[in-house]
Amino acid sequence: MALSGKSAGSKRAQHWRRRKEARPAEIVAAALEVFAERGFAACKLDHVAAKAGISKGTLYLYFRSKEEMFEAVVKSAVLPNIAEAERMVAGFAGPTRDLLQRVLGLIVERMVGTPLSAIPKLVLAEAGNFPALARFYREAAVDRVFALLRLVLARGVARGEFRAFASPEIERCIIGPILMTALWRHSFGRFDPDPMNLASFLPTHLDLLLNGLNAAGIDRVDDAQVDSRAGAGRA
Fold first, then answer.
1. CA proximity to 78, closest of 122, 45, 43
2. Does domain 1-64 have CATH number 3.10.25.10?
3. In the chain, which residues fall in CATH 1.10.10.60?
4. Start and end residues for every CATH 1.10.357 domain found in the chain
C-alpha cells in the first residue's frame, strides 16, 4: 500500500526528529574515540565531525568547543557510572569487604575495560596545557570517587571490619593501581608481550588491599619502618 505524500512527509519528519535527538550522543561517542586516538590538543572539531558523519557546521549547533565536548563525554559516560556506585553503597547491607569488591569491580569494568580508560591518560597528559580541563575532571569525577571510597572505608571501620587509618592518602593507594592499569593500556600495553589480564588484576589487587585493611591479626608497618628499610636498602 503506497503512502500518501502527507503520511510519507510525517514519517520523514519523525525520523529527522529522532536523528536530531540522538545526534548529541553520537557526537559525544565520536569525540571519545577521537580523544582516545589523538589526545586533546591534537583533536580538531573536524576530526569529530568526520567521525560522527556530520558537517562541522552541524557539530557547532551542539558544541562550541573541544572543552564542551570533553565535559559532555565526562557527564554522559563517566558520571553515570559513579552515580551507580554511589547508589550501590547507599543500599548495600552486607559485609564491607564485599561492598568494596563490588565498587572496585564496577570501576575496573566500566572505567578500565572500556574506551573510557583513555580519559585519565588524556587528563594527565594535557593537565599542564589545559589546567581547566584537569580541574573539571578532578572536581566532577575524581573527588566523587575519593569521597565514595572514604565512605566505604568509614563503614568498614565503624563495623569493626577494617582497621582505622590515620592517613588521608588511603583512597589514593586504593585507586592508584587501577589508574596505572588504565594508563598502561594506552601506553606500554601496545608493546607488552604479555598483555595485562583484567580478570586476574582485580582479584590480586583486592587480595592485597583487603588483607591490608583487615582489622584482625595484621601487623601495621608505620612510616618509620618504611624509612628505615629504605635507608638500609641505600646503604
1. 122
2. no
3. 1-64
4. 66-234
- Give the whole-angstrom CA distance, residue 16 versus residue 23: 10
Give the fold, CATH level 3, of 66-234. Answer: Tetracycline Repressor; domain 2 (1.10.357)
- Identity of the amino acid at 95: P
Q: What beta strand segments (E) does the chain contain?
A: none
Report how far apart, in Å, the C-alpha atoms of 154 and of each of 25, 51, 100, 125, 134 are. Answer: 37, 45, 11, 33, 28
* pLDDT one-digit tens code per residue, 39-52: 899 999 999 999 99
Instruction: Flag whether pLDDT at 180 surpasses 60.
Output: yes
In this structure, what C-alpha cell is assigned to residue 195?
A: 598483555
DSSP of 61-117, one letter per residue?
TT-SSHHHHHHHHIIIIIHHHHHHHHHHHHH--S-HHHHHHHHHHHHIIIIISSGGG
pLDDT value at 223 more than 50: no
pTM of the shown model: 0.79
In DSSP terms, 137 is beta-bridged to none
